[in-house]
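A.,

Following up on our hallway conversation. Structure tokens first:
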């Protein structure tokens, strides 16, 4: 709804916008490219950051798994407009109406250094948006009681993962070997 960035700032190290004249690594794109790089995690010490807001919260943790060799970063956030809306709905319609919208997302990355020439990265993103309405009503007409119950759920989920091995063959030649996974799910 325009309140939140698509990308959580806690997990991003660099953003570049390329409007034209793309480098070959982008494979002949026809429009602009937004290149976003995740942080690699702190190799030396554990640190974290949290924020509790009126309509959302976020948490970011990073640190070494093996000092100066392997690090991680995990960053997540969730909105809770759905939870804030419930008391207002209860005042207006008792327990007969429940509705809300929320999203959550989680970014995670592990970075391992084999040597000065070789690094391995494992990263993932998981997120879901959900809009729901649950309504029940009861009325009597000509001595007959009618009950109605409606439920609507609309949502979408994303999951992506990447395993990347970066190897420096020489000062002029390097290789990135990447395996990726991506899944999108829409439900109604």
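Then the amino acids I'd put at each of the 188 positions:
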């Amino acid at each position: 709804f325009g309140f939140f960035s698509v990308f959580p700032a806690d997990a991003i190290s660099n953003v570049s916008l390329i409007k034209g004249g793309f480098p070959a690594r982008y494979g002949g794109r026809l429009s602009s490219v937004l290149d976003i790089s995740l942080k690699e995690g702190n190799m030396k010490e554990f640190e974290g950051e949290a924020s509790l807001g009126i309509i959302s919260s976020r948490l970011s943790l990073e640190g070494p798994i093996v000092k100066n060799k392997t690090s991680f970063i995990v960053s997540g956030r969730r909105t809770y407009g759905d939870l804030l809306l419930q008391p207002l709905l209860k005042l207006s319609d008792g327990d007969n109406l429940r509705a809300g919208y929320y999203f959550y997302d989680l970014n995670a990355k592990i970075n391992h250094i084999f040597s000065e020439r070789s690094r391995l990265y494992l990263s993932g993103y998981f997120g879901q948006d959900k809009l729901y309405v649950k309504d029940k009503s009861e009325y009597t007409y000509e001595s007959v009681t009618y009950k109605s119950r409606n439920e609507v759920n609309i949502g979408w989920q994303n999951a992506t993962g990447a395993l990347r091995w970066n190897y420096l063959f020489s000062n002029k030649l390097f290789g990135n070997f990447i395996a990726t996974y991506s899944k999108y799910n829409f439900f109604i």
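The mean pLDDT is 87. Curious whether your intuition agrees with the design.

B.
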